[in-house]
Every structure is written in C-alpha cells, then in structure tokens.
Amino acid sequence: MAGTTAASAQAPCAVVMVRPHRFAPNPQTAADNAFQHRGDRRSAAQIAAAAFDEATQRVADGERAALARLSEAERGILLELLHKVACCRAAK
Fold first, then answer.
1. For residue 80, how many other CB atoms are within 10 A of its CB?
2. In angstroms, rounded to a whole number, what is the distance separating the alpha carbons of residues 48 and 90?
3. pLDDT one-digit tens code per residue, 37-89
4. Could you tell me which residues are beta bridge partners of residue 11?
5. Contact 45, 23 (CB under 8 A)
6. Dist. CA 83–CA 36, nearest whole Å
7. How far apart are CA 80 and CA 88, in angstroms?
8. Which pTM value belongs to this model?
9. Which phi and psi angles does 35 have, rounded to 5°?
10. What is the C-alpha separation between 17 and 60, in angstroms, rounded?
C-alpha cells in the first residue's frame, strides 16, 4: 500500500489502558521482578487506589492531548456528536 507505514511492535499507534482492579504484588514472581518490590508499606487497598487514580489521570491526560490536536472543524463535529449522545441518554 502506497503511503502507509508498517506497524511497529515497539511503537504502537494505539494503547489500551485497563484500570487496575485487584492490584498487589504477585509473591510467585516478585523475587525476580524489580517492579514488584514491597518497599512501601501501604496496604493492597491503598496501592490499588493509587494505581487506579494514576491510570485514570493518564487516560485523562491522553484524552486532553488528543483533543488538543483536533482542528476547529473536528472539535465542532465532536461537540455535535456528544450533544446528540447526551440528548439520546436524556430521552431514555
């Protein structure tokens, strides 16, 4: 295909972020995984809440960055679409 570039596994064009649900280190893999150290003394619930908040903030930051790249015409189309969705929800 002319004008297209091949996708790269190391530089994906999109990312799916899943908010953490039951977030805690895995004792079976923690011994050789530096990202699972138990350096802080927060409870699993505190760690999960912090991870949820961080993931939510990153999604919001990504949304803001994506919206900033839209042209005025694209913003208008998006606002019109969101208005129609809101009207449909209100009608239910």
1. 10
2. 34
3. 667 788 878 888 888 899 889 989 988 998 899 999 999 999 999 999 988 88
4. 8
5. no
6. 44
7. 12
8. 0.49
9. -80, -10
10. 11
